[in-house]
Amino acid sequence: MDLTLKIWRQVDAKDKGKMVDYKVTEISGSMSFLEMMDVLNEQLVNAGDEPVAFDHDCREGICGMCSMYINGEAHGPDRGVTTCQLHMRMFKDGDTITIEPWRAAAFPVIKDLVVNRSAFDRIQHAGGYISVNTSGNTQDANATLISKKAADTAMDAATCIGCGACVATCKNSSAMLFVGAKVSQYALLPQGQVEAADRVRNMVAQMDLEGFGNCTNTGACEVECPKGISLDNIARMNRELMKASI
Amino acid sequence: MALDSKVPKGPIQDKWTEYKNHINLVNPANKRNIDVIVVGTGLAGGSASATLAELGYNVKSFAYQDSPRRAHSIAAQGGINAAKNYQGDGDSTYRLFYDTVKGGDYRSREANVYRLAEVSANIIDQCVAQGVPFARDYGGLLDNRSFGGVLVSRTFYAKGQTGQQLLLGAYSAMNRQIARGKIEMFNRHEMLDVVIVDGKARGIIARNLVTGEIERHSAHAVVIASGGYGNVYFLSTNAMGSNVTAGWKVHKKGAYFANPCYTQIHPTCIPRSGDYQSKLTLMSESLRNDGRIWVPKHMEDVLAIREGSKKPTELTEEQRDYYLERRYPAFGNLVPRDVASRAAKERSDAGYGVNATGEAVYLDFAASFERYGKEQAKIHNIQNPSEAKIKELGQAIVKAKYGNLFQMYEKIVDQNPYETPMMIYPAVHYTMGGLWVDYNLMTTVPGCYAIGEANFSDHGANRLGASALMQGLADGYFVLPYTIGDYLADDIRTGTISTESPEFEAAEKEVTERIEFLIQNKGIHSVDYYHKKLGKIMWDKCGMSRNTEGLKTAIEEISALRKDFWQNVNVPGTATEYNEQLAKAGRVADFLELGELFAKDALVREESAGGHFREEHQTEDGEAKRIKEFQFVSAWEYKGEPKDAVLHKEQLEYENIEVKERSYK
Amino acid sequence: MLDDLFRRIFVVTILTSYTMSGFFKSSIGRKVAMALSAFFLMFFLLQHLSINILSVLSPETFNEVSHFMGTNPLVQFVLQPILIFAVVFHFVMGFVLELRNSRARKVAYAKNNGAANSSWMSRNMIWSGMTILAFIGLHFVDFWFPEMNTKFIQQDWSGTMEGVEGLRYHHELVEKFVNPVRVGAYAFAFVLLGLHLAHGFTSAFQSMGGTAGRKKILQTIGKAYSILIPLGFITIAVYHYFNH
């Protein structure tokens, strides 16, 4: 298929940036979206132009590196996939595809479609861990029983890949699904109880400091999340913060 | 330099304990004055960074990705082995040690493997304490699955995302130390050289991938934890950015590179669909438990299927060639990874590949649907079930077992594997070779360590399933933190290492000049053009099966390709900006050197062992034939061009295991 | 004894308000505050509708209840100020959050397909809210200002008026629904209120952390509430329009 691409080009963080049109031809439906971008870039390099910068790494939907806003949706029109797992068969010959970087004040653009998601790391630094030394002198792994339900629900929260689609999708650029998932993972496990109050307070404080918006419960994040992280995690975080504050 | 593995004396089960009891320690107050650089933040690098920082060292961690959490350990699916014996099925440290050495086809170092098995149980304790949500049973205890054909259930898992959960555990431990200021994290930074001062590794030159700035970082020791080099094949299950550069630079500065030709090729990956393909996706090999592998018997059917005029389901049993069952009646579809992979290649090479690229075979679940369906019909007491009913019942069972894999397959291939057989093809996914290290995990460059997939040590010629995660975390959490202390104890009075020395100057100059060259070259071919060409040579001649002639040709071809690269590569943009093409050019340049050494190593190793299969050395059944004289580690010393590399041998002694033929009958 | 109790309540109040003030400064605290005011307003709506229904069923009872509400000191001097505070707070906070949230994305998407992942209601609370605000303005002009005038400036607490037999409330209500334009505006505003509630009801529970495990039932109740409340008000208006 032949496609028209409208892609955000921005030289660096200071540049104003603009949308630029490109054409690609003979795109196969079994290509992944990033492979289509590879074709475009090969074309640009061979023509002596600058290729489009975009983040990507594992290309199997788990590293959380890829991040494109495609036709108005984070990771494009398919559900439960990252951009690297989005296949071109979702599009038709002659389509125009608009490709933009994640847009959020807390995710400044580095170049073209590459954004800086360090804010996520800083939120994790604020409390996304259990304070246990890695000396190996911990109790036996089976010493504390954990119900299957708690372990499974914690696992569901922990599958977050930190891609930032929730922020990109949210009309308020809120990071609550991301933070809620981490808070929930530990809140659901006995190991996480000791620091629970401090953790949620510190992580939420850092989240606010980073300039993410507030959650208005539109639920868009849950729909666009490639890992299907549930909104329940946000509710749980709200509860945890109330518990921590009273 | 003669190789000294520094394995402690004494009985194997006491070596590690004795060793720990007698090493030099660094006083906590002195640790504050010692800096350690860790390159890579996967399971090995992440866990090492966290632990070293916790001990009190000042750690500087480097990742080329935008966050430590993105390292490719995250993609490991199946699980992590540990000799916990929770299932009471007879597992023990010795048994895990034995399985690992045997699985590695008797080409790994006994003492290292024993230590790995010994600390494995502790990893699980540690990870649970960190909040890793391992799967549990209804009683609240940890669940295990069996894996990779061993006789016990020792694999711990977190859904199909064990690597992700373990990595996030290590990442969380790092975050705690980053918050304390004990780890300084350098994201989007790539190590481009190691700096050696007075014979010791004292720092690195790194490039800030956002600004292009070249930076000098000093430390008292440098730890390489940059993973494997599977991307030398261009197509692999590795991440796009996975590269050998850090390890290769260290190699060029004096570290020996061991067993580069040991590569693991995984049989159940989703086939390539075209030349644009950038990456291969692996599906758990457990699928082979219930799937039958076949290609059409007759060429006309192959052609009809390729052009779409025939469906695979239309072929009768007589028209199908279940080649694994035909060639290996005893093991059938459950032959080991390497045998299954080679057999698929053999059929495809003969022209029987079933997709457009000619590189795919069928993995068919129809027989399982029927078998499970009939079983279910009996269980549910359904009299004379229709064929459709049987299929439906059987599919439900298969779905419960492999539902997520079937779904993933459908997303990628756009075919429903419940209705038509899956297509699979082998793909490169792990490299057992790497930097040579001694018992302390130190390379032949003093003060330079290599851990995880970046070193060669524990898996011999073939790695068992669920052992990569175990090794990465064992090295990082429990081994390196001890062994590095022994070395650093001598550095307590050294003080901060200056980055103004002539050595740093020279290293930086070299890096800058190389980058300038690449940018200025303005050739005619893109970086990917060379990477793809290299990948094709590697896959065709250094892939699943290798022979003398092919390897010799490969060496010549790679050497010529490298020359071509340096003349004609085209890197757009500048050196002082975010420039992915430039970063990639540097990595491919290193792959072009490694590839040749790889072929040379494969040529020298006149035997078959594990992932290294020489067509000249096989049994009548087509199995790998080991040769006693090659019971050594090939450690290559850099001498300029790869063709000039000098081979050093570390003889492998087996005192606690009897070396036997691997047999699958 | 009693003295000690008061002191303890005092200390606890000070301490909680201190820690809680930190809480209400956080993003989550703010949305909890939105939810709390929303709960109060939703309860108020239910109560208001219940009374208004009486205007259809029994004008006498309606008059009596209205008189009670309009003259009871607890309602007038405690509940009414709380209500006004809740209304004002909900609106002010709504605007503040909207403003802050818009600042969290400085460059807008060239193409955004919001409909793909969220409801129109959830994305446009500020617009439905502003419509409701405008309606409250009208409502104040229609009822609340005249009431305040009668009671506090004219000092007339009798509940009667010239030319009307018995209490005046029912008469005043019916009078307002003579004008079809007003009835139309009234209906329009309540449709928007319905849309506001369609998202707001479950959203308030979610903000309070209460939906986990009870999502389905809350959604059903929310749907019923957001349809029945506006429908009730509109039906009453239309009824009076046709029956005056």
UniProtKB/TrEMBL annotation, chain A:
<keyword id="KW-0411">Iron-sulfur</keyword>
<keyword id="KW-0408">Iron</keyword>
<dbReference type="InterPro" id="IPR050573">
    <property type="entry name" value="SDH/FRD_Iron-Sulfur"/>
</dbReference>
<feature type="domain" description="4Fe-4S ferredoxin-type">
    <location>
        <begin position="151"/>
        <end position="181"/>
    </location>
</feature>
<dbReference type="InterPro" id="IPR025192">
    <property type="entry name" value="Succ_DH/fum_Rdtase_N"/>
</dbReference>
<dbReference type="GO" id="GO:0022904">
    <property type="term" value="P:respiratory electron transport chain"/>
</dbReference>
<dbReference type="GO" id="GO:0009055">
    <property type="term" value="F:electron transfer activity"/>
</dbReference>
<dbReference type="InterPro" id="IPR004489">
    <property type="entry name" value="Succ_DH/fum_Rdtase_Fe-S"/>
</dbReference>
<dbReference type="GO" id="GO:0051537">
    <property type="term" value="F:2 iron, 2 sulfur cluster binding"/>
</dbReference>
<comment type="similarity">
    <text>Belongs to the succinate dehydrogenase/fumarate reductase iron-sulfur protein family.</text>
</comment>
<keyword id="KW-0560">Oxidoreductase</keyword>
<dbReference type="Pfam" id="PF13183">
    <property type="entry name" value="Fer4_8"/>
</dbReference>
<dbReference type="GO" id="GO:0046872">
    <property type="term" value="F:metal ion binding"/>
</dbReference>
<dbReference type="InterPro" id="IPR006058">
    <property type="entry name" value="2Fe2S_fd_BS"/>
</dbReference>
<protein>
    <submittedName>
        <fullName>Succinate dehydrogenase</fullName>
    </submittedName>
</protein>
<dbReference type="GO" id="GO:0051539">
    <property type="term" value="F:4 iron, 4 sulfur cluster binding"/>
</dbReference>
<keyword id="KW-0479">Metal-binding</keyword>
<dbReference type="GO" id="GO:0016491">
    <property type="term" value="F:oxidoreductase activity"/>
</dbReference>
<keyword id="KW-0004">4Fe-4S</keyword>
<dbReference type="InterPro" id="IPR036010">
    <property type="entry name" value="2Fe-2S_ferredoxin-like_sf"/>
</dbReference>
<dbReference type="InterPro" id="IPR017896">
    <property type="entry name" value="4Fe4S_Fe-S-bd"/>
</dbReference>
<keyword id="KW-0001">2Fe-2S</keyword>
Automatic annotation (TrEMBL), chain B:
<dbReference type="Pfam" id="PF02910">
    <property type="entry name" value="Succ_DH_flav_C"/>
</dbReference>
<dbReference type="GO" id="GO:0009061">
    <property type="term" value="P:anaerobic respiration"/>
</dbReference>
<feature type="active site" description="Proton acceptor">
    <location>
        <position position="337"/>
    </location>
</feature>
<dbReference type="GO" id="GO:0005886">
    <property type="term" value="C:plasma membrane"/>
</dbReference>
<comment type="similarity">
    <text>Belongs to the FAD-dependent oxidoreductase 2 family. FRD/SDH subfamily.</text>
</comment>
<dbReference type="InterPro" id="IPR037099">
    <property type="entry name" value="Fum_R/Succ_DH_flav-like_C_sf"/>
</dbReference>
<keyword id="KW-1003">Cell membrane</keyword>
<dbReference type="GO" id="GO:0009055">
    <property type="term" value="F:electron transfer activity"/>
</dbReference>
<protein>
    <recommendedName>
        <fullName>succinate dehydrogenase</fullName>
        <ecNumber>1.3.5.1</ecNumber>
    </recommendedName>
</protein>
<dbReference type="InterPro" id="IPR027477">
    <property type="entry name" value="Succ_DH/fumarate_Rdtase_cat_sf"/>
</dbReference>
<dbReference type="GO" id="GO:0008177">
    <property type="term" value="F:succinate dehydrogenase (quinone) activity"/>
</dbReference>
<dbReference type="GO" id="GO:0050660">
    <property type="term" value="F:flavin adenine dinucleotide binding"/>
</dbReference>
<dbReference type="InterPro" id="IPR015939">
    <property type="entry name" value="Fum_Rdtase/Succ_DH_flav-like_C"/>
</dbReference>
<dbReference type="InterPro" id="IPR036188">
    <property type="entry name" value="FAD/NAD-bd_sf"/>
</dbReference>
<keyword id="KW-0813">Transport</keyword>
<keyword id="KW-0285">Flavoprotein</keyword>
<keyword id="KW-0274">FAD</keyword>
<keyword id="KW-0249">Electron transport</keyword>
<dbReference type="InterPro" id="IPR011280">
    <property type="entry name" value="Succ_DH/Fum_Rdt_flav_su"/>
</dbReference>
<keyword id="KW-0560">Oxidoreductase</keyword>
<feature type="domain" description="Fumarate reductase/succinate dehydrogenase flavoprotein-like C-terminal">
    <location>
        <begin position="531"/>
        <end position="664"/>
    </location>
</feature>
<dbReference type="InterPro" id="IPR030664">
    <property type="entry name" value="SdhA/FrdA/AprA"/>
</dbReference>
